[in-house]
Design goal:
By secondary structure, the chain is α/β, with parallel strands linked by helices. The protein contains 19 helices and 24 strands.
């Protein structure tokens, strides 16, 4: 595509007035319905719907038309993360019921963060090829925010439930009014009231948190006791044409829920290998299952203080959210050090490691059995939970599904057409067909060959609007500064260098040049990262002024038992860090 067309598209897109007919020419269409690649196609759309798909030789494109050259590229449906939570940031402080660090960051700040950043998180999903997301467990205030963002055609479609109707409510989330993510189900009498309460906010579906505790026998007894209340919620939701999503990770709670009409299991079964009869039950009831293979390991790795992120995640996650994960390094030197170090030791114990390995294995075996047995699988991350970053975690989840034994076509279906079936949207989107929404991703490489190619994006098309994916998320001086701090703490040289200009200059304040160019930085910092396994930078204070960021830093790990206090001044030009001044 010519540069002139790129600029025109960007201009029209920003103005929300782009309705011209667009042709994606000579592209290979990824047909997720029939599991095949169809080469040399031209896909036509004007606004939201796809209007024509034919072999390129059969379509004559009028002169001066808007044409995207698809030669050598692959066009697939936009993807969906079928399990996210916008009331959670993905950062360290987001679940005080699991890891209570409220003395360091009040939970009210987390609530405010989730509202302030939901739009940017959606932009990050779109940047990574996800044109829809499903949030099974939000709040009333987030439902209102969903409504206010709905008119923005430049964002993914959001399908959201209200608060989780739960059999157990954590203390940390009580008395939060319309910011409360849980509503306690105590009896059958509560069921109608709790569903009707949500209907006023127009949720897309209802979510139940079917929690039982104790040993196996006690859990089964609780599940049976709670069954009438669970059934009453399901019945009331169905009376109001709302589907039911349910958190039920034990086989017997999931089976109870499905027998009573649950539509969507938002997690895999993790307590036992499922039987063929259970698979037949899921198929007969047309239940959709979201396996969420990686979310619990992200908790365990956080507790064990061994969570690591890929270069892709460091470069594409929200910098503030992923940055908070590295706070554990300096929090272990606070009054919480005893609790944090005890938890670290516990999650290093052979007994705990064996338990984690067993549940991981059960999930993988069950997923393969369900996929081979014809159960509809929808890919989802449970993003927002501690350590599971919004948007950037999706590719890791798909790879885990691959490791479980699913093939690439099954995984592509789970990320595109299958999630649309959760809310009966399969006639509207999820595959490339005439009449369906032009929610598309143009890839530079074949996703059937390698799932990593899903990250090699050329253009994202949402509602018929082609978008340069590099322009979706606004780059700010603060985000660049934080991104390189995160990569510094991860000791990841590629992610560390990414925010810097090729000709970056480093100075000792006020004007002594000590380094020029990225390659000089690579040599210096690669050596530093290799020699300093405990390297950690804590930002004590930050000032942002136009294109300048000033960080007061405390760096440990350079020398045993010694912290280095310094100030770094970052100057940003053309969305890259161009100069850095160090004051020691």
């Amino acid at each position: 595509m010519c540069k002139k067309f790129q600029i025109a598209l960007a201009t029209f897109f920003c103005m929300n007035i782009f309705h011209a007919q667009i042709y994606i020419e000579n592209v290979t269409v990824v047909d997720v319905i029939h599991k095949k690649l169809i080469p040399a196609q031209t896909v036509v759309f004007s606004g939201k719907p796809i209007t024509e798909i034919k072999p390129s030789r059969q379509i004559k494109i009028p002169k001066n038309s808007h044409v995207i050259d698809g030669k050598g590229k692959y066009l697939m449906p936009g993807m969906t993360d079928a399990h996210v939570h916008f009331f959670q940031s993905g950062g360290l402080y987001t679940r005080p019921d699991a890891l209570d660090l409220r003395k360091h960051v009040p939970y009210e700040k987390e609530i405010s963060w989730s509202h302030h950043n939901m739009e940017e998180l959606l932009q990050r999903y779109l940047k990574m090829g996800m044109t829809s997301v499903i949030d099974p467990g939000a709040t009333y205030n987030l439902l209102k925010l969903r409504d206010s963002l709905k008119e923005n055609v430049r964002l993914p479609s959001v399908y959201m439930s209200g608060p989780l109707i739960t059999t157990y409510e954590p203390e940390a989330f009580k008395n939060l009014n319309k910011d409360e993510p849980f509503r306690l189900l105590s009896s059958v009498d509560d069921a109608k009231k709790l569903v009707q309460e949500q209907i006023a906010y127009q949720p897309d579906f209802i979510k139940i948190w079917y929690i039982v505790t104790g040993d196996a026998q006690k859990k089964k007894e609780q599940a049976k006791e709670l069954e009438p209340a669970i059934k009453a919620v399901i019945d009331e939701a169905h009376k109001n044409n709302l589907k039911i999503a349910i958190h039920a990770t034990e086989r017997f709670t999931a089976e109870t829920a499905v027998q009573n009409g649950a539509d969507f299991l938002v997690h895999n079964i993790e307590d036992e290998v499922i039987s063929d009869d259970f698979i037949k039950l899921l198929k007969s009831k047309k239940v959709i299952v979201c396996p969420t293979l990686t979310v619990m390991d992200n908790y365990y790795d956080t507790y064990g203080q061994k969570k690591t992120y890929t270069t892709y995640e460091l470069e594409n996650s929200h910098p503030e959210s992923i940055g908070s994960m590295y706070d554990l390094k300096h929090l272990t030197q606070t009054s919480d050090s005893v609790i944090l170090n005890k938890r670290k030791a516990r999650f290093s114990e052979p007994k705990i490691k064996a338990y984690i390995s067993k549940t991981d294995s059960i999930r993988a075996v069950n997923l393969k059995k369900m996929a081979e047995g014809g159960v509809t699988i929808a890919a989802g991350t449970d993003a927002g939970n501690i350590g599971t970053q919004h948007a950037s975690s999706f590719i890791s989840e798909l790879k885990a599904m691959k490791e479980s034994g699913m093939d690439e076509w099954q995984i592509l279906q789970s990320a595109t057409i299958n999630p649309t079936k959760i809310l009966n949207k399969e006639k509207e989107s999820g595959s490339i067909e005439v009449g369906k929404a032009a929610d598309l991703v143009l890839l530079n490489s074949n996703p059937v060959e390698n799932l990593d190619h899903l990250t090699d994006i050329d253009w994202v098309i949402k509602n018929g609007l082609p978008i340069d994916h590099e322009r979706i998320v606004k780059v700010t001086p603060e985000s660049l500064a934080q991104q390189q701090v995160n990569a510094y703490n991860a000791r990841n040289i590629e992610a560390f260098l990414e925010p810097y200009a090729e000709d970056v200059e480093l100075y000792l304040f006020p004007g002594k040049l000590i380094s020029k160019g990225k390659e000089a930085m690579r040599k210096t910092y690669s050596n530093l990262f290799d020699k300093s396994p405990d390297l950690h930078c804590e930002i004590k204070q930050r000032i942002v002024n136009l294109n300048t960021v000033i960080d007061k830093e405390s760096v440990s790990g350079l020398r045993p038992g010694v912290k280095t206090e310094a100030t770094a001044i970052y100057e940003i030009k053309n969305d890259k860090i161009s100069k850095v001044y160090f004051i020691h």
